[in-house]
């Protein structure tokens, strides 16, 4: 074969390879990550027959942990606000001026106001969950505060807003277990299930605890929880009102109590890993409930020299009092804090249906019959304690 023929064949092969590359799919519509607006939180309010939505947008180049980041440097937060006759319409108003393409796949939190809860928050949840980029596992909060104030609060040490309770409640819950975080998929499941009250933690702004030098540093905190029954807002209870609900949380890592409860302190205990049982007691048309709690504990502080059995007995009295007080305040606010009627629904559905033909809830202060508590102190720290 002539040399020029081999050259033509080689050139043809190269040309064919180049043509084939034109047929391969490419990332023609891809965007550089620094040119996207990442929405990390959505707030929804309702006023004057209009939905008002807020979005918190972060630049990941500012919040990513790299060697070049300066610890303590303030991280800027951008907040968009839109208004419309529907949730989607109000979000669309934000897109009109976003300047950048908005990405919804990193939304981690939804915050709703009391106005929306009274109007009905279920439709807003459905509207957001219908969008394919938004995930089900979103933290859900309610608030009495202005959403602009909630979304502008910084973290301790000026860390990323992603390190606040609004985004990362687990570290705080692990060291002080009180009100358990609630996720969107849990909220939707409970709202659609008969006999299950739905709890939504409430966010507030605390100004009295921390200072940055001599200047007050307002930070986010959990102030209590809202309760829904049959998709309708039942009421709100403060964190102090909900002390007794801690003892029926399976994920409780650490909760502190003082014994005795109100008199001169004898000791402080750290309690963890509760096991509980709720038992409906049916007598004809009357249904009452027994609560049994078993919990482990450690001795954190001993003010007066007291034996372990005595401390366990006093701790049992404190927990029993807290459960009674929380139940009483829950009934006053029309909230089934301990999910008593859910237990009836799960174990005796026919009885539950007959009970709920006339009213959505049949609970009264007399519905809680017996409370049994057993505390087992496992550790006294580096010091020994009396056992007799």
From TrEMBL:
Pfam families: Spore_GerAC, Spore_GerAC_N
Domain Spore germination GerAC-like C-terminal: 223-381
Entry's localization field: Membrane
Name used for this protein in its record: Ger(X)C family germination protein
Family: Belongs to the GerABKC lipoprotein family.
InterPro entries: GerAC_N (IPR057336), Spore_GerAC-like (IPR008844), Spore_GerAC-like_C (IPR046953), Spore_GerAC_C_sf (IPR038501)
Main localization of the protein described in the UniProt heading: membrane
Highest taxon of the lineage: Bacteria
Residue ranges that the Swiss-Prot or TrEMBL entry lists as coiled coil: none
Keyword terms, alphabetized: Germination, Lipoprotein, Membrane, Palmitate, Signal
One annotated Gene Ontology cellular component of this protein: membrane
Organism: Paenibacillus cellulosilyticus
């Amino acid at each position: 074969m002539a040399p020029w023929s081999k050259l033509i064949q080689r050139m043809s092969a190269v040309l064919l390879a180049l043509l084939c590359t034109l047929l391969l799919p490419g990332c023609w519509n891809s965007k550089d990550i620094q040119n996207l607006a990442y929405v990390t939180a959505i707030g929804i309010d309702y006023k004057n027959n209009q939905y008002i939505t807020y979005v918190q947008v972060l630049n990941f180049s500012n919040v990513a942990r790299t060697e070049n980041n300066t610890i303590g440097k303030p991280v800027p937060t951008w907040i968009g606000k839109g208004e419309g006759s529907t949730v989607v319409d109000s979000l669309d108003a934000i897109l009109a001026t976003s300047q950048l393409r908005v990405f919804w796949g990193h939304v981690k939190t939804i915050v709703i106001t009391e106005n929306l809860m009274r109007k009905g928050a279920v439709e807003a949840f459905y509207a957001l969950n219908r969008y394919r980029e938004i995930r089900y596992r979103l933290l859900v909060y309610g608030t009495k505060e202005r959403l602009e104030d909630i979304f502008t609060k910084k973290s301790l040490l000026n860390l990323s807003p992603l390190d606040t309770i609004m985004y990362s409640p687990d570290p705080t819950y692990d060291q002080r277990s009180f009100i358990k975080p609630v996720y969107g998929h849990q909220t939707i499941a409970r709202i659609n299930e008969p006999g299950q009250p739905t709890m939504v933690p409430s966010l507030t702004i605390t100004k009295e605890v921390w200072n940055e030098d001599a200047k007050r540093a307002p930070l986010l905190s959990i102030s209590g929880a809202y309760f829904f029954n049959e998709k309708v807002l039942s009421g709100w209870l403060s964190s102090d009102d909900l002390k007794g609900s801690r003892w029926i949380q399976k994920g409780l890592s650490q909760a502190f109590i003082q014994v005795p409860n109100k008199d001169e302190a004898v000791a402080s205990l750290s309690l963890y890993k509760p096991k509980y049982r709720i038992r409906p007691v049916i007598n004809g048309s009357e249904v009452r409930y027994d609560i049994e709690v078993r919990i482990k504990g450690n001795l954190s502080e001993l003010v007066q020299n007291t034996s372990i059995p005595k401390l366990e007995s006093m701790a049992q009295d404190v927990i029993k009092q807290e459960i009674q007080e929380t139940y009483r305040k829950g009934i006053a606010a029309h909230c089934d804090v301990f999910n008593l009627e859910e237990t009836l629904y799960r174990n005796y559905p026919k009885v539950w249906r007959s009970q709920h033909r006339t009213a959505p809830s049949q609970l009264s202060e007399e519905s809680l019959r017996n409370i049994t508590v057993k505390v087992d102190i496992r550790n006294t720290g580096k010091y020994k304690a009396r056992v007799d």
